[in-house]
Amino acid sequence: MKGQAVYPAAAALFAVAAASPSKTTCLLLIIYLLLLFIRRPHCFLPALVAALFFFVYFLIVDHHNKTSLSGGRHSLSVRFSAAPAIDGDRLQAAVQAGKERVQLRYIIRTAAEKEALRARLMPGVVCRLSGMLERPMPASNPYAFDYRRYLRRHRIHWLFLPEAIDLSACVRVRPTIIERLEAIREAGVRRIEAQFPPEAAGIAAALIYGERRSLDEEVISGYQQLGIIHLLAISGGHVTLLVGAALAAAIRFVTREAAVLALLVFLPMYAVLAGASPSVLRACATGMIVLAVQWKKGMIHPLDALSWTALALLVFDPYMVWDVGFQLSFLVTFALLAHVSVLASARSMLQNLFQTALAAQLAALPILLYHFYEISVWSIGLNVFFVPWYSFVILPIAFLSAVFSFSPLIWLFSRLIELTDAVVRFFSVDYSFMLVLGRPGPWCLAGYLTAIAAAFLDWERGRLIRGLTAVAAATALQLAAPYVDPKGEVTVLDVGQGDCIYIELPYRKAVYLIDTSGTPEWVREPWRKRSRPFAVGRDVVVPFLKAQGVRTLDQLILTHDDADHIGAAPEVMGAVRVKKIVTSPGALPAVKAMARPFSVSVAASVRGDRWKVGDAAFSVLHPEAGNNEDNNGSLVLLARLGRLTWLFAADIEEEAEQALIRAYPELRADVLKVAHHGSKTSTTELFLRTVKPRAAIISVGRYNRYGHPSPEVLMRLRQQRAIIWRTDENGAIRYVYDENGGTFQVMKP
């Protein structure tokens, strides 16, 4: 029967994910096969065969995904298969080193060297380079991007850090077909960057070549928040328009069969020219299957074409199943194809656009929440407007402007992009309405999938409101989940050379953040500036809060006004609601100025202040009233959380430690957040003999220039027989507890 290939394709997807391994996906695969056995017995055997084949196939592929290289200094002959990505003073490229690929990363030294590298390092260039091979860093915070895993799924196991790139040791060899196509693509992107204004060049390059390097980060962020980022990806709509236009033009000169054959040859080439992302590969592969069947005078059900495409791509690269683009592309396309009869019954174009946007949003909801933790309430309405706007206005003008380089066309395209960006900015920045739900757990995801499947079935039976109610109920359950969870947690985030500590009480009775860390701002020459420099608030703290589903902080506790403790506070206040900021007296003026644009109340806290929420108790031990010093005026907090007493010592030094001992001679703590990142000016022997910590947590940056933590401090802690955890070595340290006790977890054991 037509349209039945979707069942073995779904089984294959489940099987690859289950073999990763994933116990939850294994269970889902078993449930799926049982349901097929009961409801679709004629599809059970093909699905079972597909599941077994791809389960074993993935295990074999993964077993052979190993490296033959070793760390340390090496001299390698590397081949550039694509132009390197140059951003400011950083050059990156996935290069071939013998039989293996490595990720080359190089810091450019001068502006002249940057221009020379941009001009000479093209696809097909081979260079002899000497440098260090290092393992990529794994994720060091909960929910964070795991760079090591990402590279491994692309068959890359090492970072190669060359000492220098001597262009005299580079030669151009005969390029492969793919390298020739990559060179054409790079030339096309550079042509757009040279001819289009900066604000329009990024959009044009993304729409034509699938290259986003010229896109402003604020623009990308706005499109992503509003759920319209798919407009900047080359996908089925692009390929359909391109194939339709090419076929219509070609049949005027050659037979339809010859035109179809030419397109079958052209589409793989176009996939490379368009960046070969999963959405591009899906669109081109599906187009090729449809064209091949037509060439043989046959017909194929769209769902079958999509399913065979999924199976082919999984054979080509089973790791693709974890790519966000792959997941969104296939799931949304499947939902639209399976729901096509309902969409076709729309009485008007506007109704069709609305129903299509709604169906796509429903299908994408679990994936969006899992990867991005939030959704925009404007998403459906904006898709109704932007999809036709991009399909029939922006995309055609972009192609015409790039092909003919006609100045009035480029001017028109630029003005239209300015208008579009203004609308995006209005809804993503000025009047943002984001619903932060957090990352759903396995069973929450299962609930969403069940509710969404029920919603589509109800929709087909004419009961759309009932179906949407089921999805709303699943959303409400996720919103309510933290408030019925008896577990609390303390997480010391890995924020480099800084402090950031997250505290959530059981049943989410309160959420606190102690400090936010911050990214130092170095004065850089203009050519060194990167389009998206790392920012600890935007890239670490805010994503963690959103993944937790945090929409409101009851207190933001800023211990003092050093940048490595409060530098990211504006980013936090801009992302989540902060009820109140508590800080030390010395930091009060600086913190008030920082909080004023966000209308957050600020109060200074001194020794003797305390509060209690449920079983959790908090006491401010330092500073005393009138102390306006910097480090020694830091706010020190003692907290009773679960069955442990925590002492958060901020950046106090020996003088403040002595003052604490004098004021609290019986001071004890189970867990000590070590002061001042382990500086030798703190954590004195007398202080440790008084506090007697059983565990010590040091928040410190890798390879920091201060030499923290001090060997003397580590020795003193060992003498006290304290367990030592360090964020530079262990990543984030997390303590999850309930009324019966708790457990410590580290990201990197």
TrEMBL record:
UniProt keyword terms in alphabetical order: Cell membrane, Membrane, Transmembrane, Transmembrane helix
Superkingdom, natural source: Bacteria
Recorded topology in the membrane: Multi-pass membrane protein
Coiled coil start-end: none
Listed GO CC annotations: plasma membrane
Main location (coarse class): membrane
Stored InterPro entries: ComA-like_MBL (IPR035681), ComEC_N (IPR004477), Competence_ComEC/Rec2 (IPR004797), Competence_DNA_uptake (IPR052159), DUF4131 (IPR025405), Metallo-B-lactamas (IPR001279), RibonucZ/Hydroxyglut_hydro (IPR036866)
Protein name as it appears in the record: Competence protein ComEC
Pfam annotation, one family: Lactamase_B
Transmembrane stretches, start-end: 12-38, 44-61, 231-254, 260-293, 328-346, 353-373, 385-404, 440-457
Keyword Transcription regulation belongs to the record: no
Domain Metallo-beta-lactamase: 497-702
